[in-house]
Amino acid sequence: MSGMRFTPKGYGGHRRNPDEVKREGWREQGVLAVSADDDRLTWPERELVRQLGEKLYGPRPSDREARHG
What is the 3-state secondary structure (H, E, C) of the chain? Predict the structure, then answer.
């Protein structure tokens, strides 16, 4: 039997790359996903991202080890 195959949106064909997902999240929902190590950011911008992350979610395990090690 050769019927049509239906796949719900997001379950077939094109897979978006991570930057597309981040861009759409920002534009559609105001959600910002950014790496503290993103080369496109200056040092002060990366530091701000790190500080925001720590304020909202606590220090990263690698940051704890570096400070207490």
Answer: CCCCCCCCCCCCCCCCCHHHHHHHHHHHHCCCCCCCCCCCCCHHHHHHHHHHHHHHHCCCHHHHHHHHC
